[in-house]
Design brief:
- This protein is of the alpha/beta class and 305 residues long.
- It has 10 helices and 16 strands.
- Helix 3 packs across helix 9.
- The termini are close together.
- The mean pLDDT is 95.
Length: 305
């Protein structure tokens, strides 16, 4: 099979398109014929050495595809699935644990389904598991046009929350079109003023944005941080939030098949839209990383074998 593998950390030139032996699924696992693989920021952070993983490594944490071989209950050869991989998604074949995948509804495209595991679960868990967002509450989403942000807008609106999105002027119409009630152009407007009205502050940017949101956090609010790896000063962020009578929670996304299934159902029903910035062949992994590293893509980047 064809894979994209990293033997040594560095720039995009270390992404090597090679032949490899297919992975072998163990007990409770399946072998998936990959139809689409999502590109996440953690991929280029591993490639560049910002996140440690044993090398060589096949990148790609989440995929959609068709089961070729099952050694797990609940899944059979021919089933279309989406979820997290064990062996890496930048490949024609990948293994996955049964507890980290879900069946793909017929009405969901493979390239859309590949986006749901990492971005969809992160948005869901940040808003509801960490943020405890409820109907009638207000959420501010910093970085609202990105892969996680554009899903979070729709989930929050579907839950009956008031949504404030932030970003540059070019994404205003896009974010409002997804259902956000308000938009704050961070290059021209005061994000902190809007943040003071929020019950949940979903920080998808990190760095200076985290610090500015923390200064605006109000008593009882939740600051949910996503940027990976966790910043070294995160404990100080948590303490500052406590001092303000609020809390800061770092979101480590977990595999939840029940949430995967619900997210896929929302897409199948037309209640949630998946925005794709680019769909590229596996051979264009370098271009995909360059786009992802730019930090200015709208929606998600997907690779197809």
């Amino acid at each position: 099979m064809k894979v994209v593998v990293v033997h040594a950390t560095g720039g995009t030139d270390v992404l090597s398109h090679e032949d490899a032996e297919p992975p072998e699924p163990g007990d409770g696992e399946v072998l998936i014929r990959v139809r689409a693989a999502s590109v996440n920021p953690v991929d280029w952070k591993v490639r560049s050495g910002l996140v440690d993983r044993p090398l060589p490594v096949v990148l790609g944490d989440d995929v959609s595809g068709t089961v070729e071989l099952s050694r797990a209950q609940g899944f059979s050869a021919g089933d279309d699935v989406l979820g997290w991989t064990l062996s890496g998604g930048y490949a024609e074949l990948a293994t996955a644990r049964a507890g980290e995948i879900a069946h793909k509804p017929d009405g969901v495209r493979f390239d859309h389904a590949a986006v749901i595991p990492m971005s969809g679960l992160t948005a869901w868990q940040a808003l509801f598991d960490h943020g405890r967002l409820e109907r009638g509450g207000t959420v501010l989403i910093a970085g609202a046009a990105g892969g996680i942000g554009h899903i979070a807008i729709q989930l929050a609106r579907f839950a009956g929350a008031h949504v404030i999105g932030t970003g540059s002027s070019r994404n205003r119409d896009f974010v409002l079109g997804l259902g956000a009630d308000e938009y704050v152009d961070y290059t021209r407007e005061d994000v902190a003023a809007a943040a003071r009205r929020a019950d949940v502050l979903l920080d998808l940017v990190g760095g200076d944005t985290t610090r500015s949101l923390l200064q605006a956090v109000r008593p009882g609010a939740v600051l949910a941080g996503i940027a990976y790896p966790p910043p070294a000063d995160w404990p100080a962020t948590e303490q500052a939030a406590r001092d303000a009578g609020a809390r800061a929670e770092y979101v480590m996304t977990r595999a939840r098949p029940d949430q995967l299934t619900r997210l896929a159902e929302l897409v199948a029903a037309g209640d949630m839209r998946i925005e794709l910035a680019a769909v590229l062949p596996l051979t264009a992994a370098r271009q995909a990383h360059e786009l992802s590293e730019s930090g200015h893509t709208r929606g998600k980047i997907v690779l197809t074998p």
